[in-house]
Amino acid sequence: MATKTGLAWREFLAAGKEGQRWEYVDGEVKFMSPMGFEHGHVVHLISGRLAWWQELADGWVSVGSGVGFTMTSGECLCPDAAAVRRERLPEALPKGPAPFPPDVAFEVISPEDLPADIERKRDIYRENGVVQVWVNPLKRSVEVIGPLYGTRTFAEDETAVIKELPGFGMLLFPLLPKRVRDEKPGVG
User: Fold this and answer.
1) Potential cystine with 24: which of 76, 101, 163, 172 (Cβ 3.0-4.6 Å)?
2) Which residues of the chain are under the pLDDT cut of 50?
3) What is the pTM (predicted TM-score) of this model?
């Protein structure tokens, strides 16, 4: 649910509460409900894979859910996970939201996400040159969108390779249980 605010962006940042999940899009504050269990599990798997990769990759820093990134147009998005080239970071890590977009943003689609909101986030990331990794647990697919390689879609049995992250790949869906289908007992 979006809440219109008369606060300036900097005033809103100062008034925000620790641990509260929100994004700032098109001049509106969008509070986000807590993650569901499946969504949280997928985010955990992505973050774990990124942490492992970061130990091996030189020159990258990854962060988990809840970190805000300021886009060039003023929006603040909080991807489920993100990676940033170390050379873009100041010597001291930012204490608040990053004052720049991430290099790669990972987003997990929830059943509650509205298609218009997903499309708007895609546009904002695209306008900021961010490589996007959209994980859809319902469709069991991963879509990678980037300015250099276009759009690539990976099915549940394929390793999603993000070429912009050297040496990074993830095979998520064998780690997730199959969804229980809407079947009636005794039918089938």
Assistant:
1) 76
2) 1-7, 180-188
3) 0.81
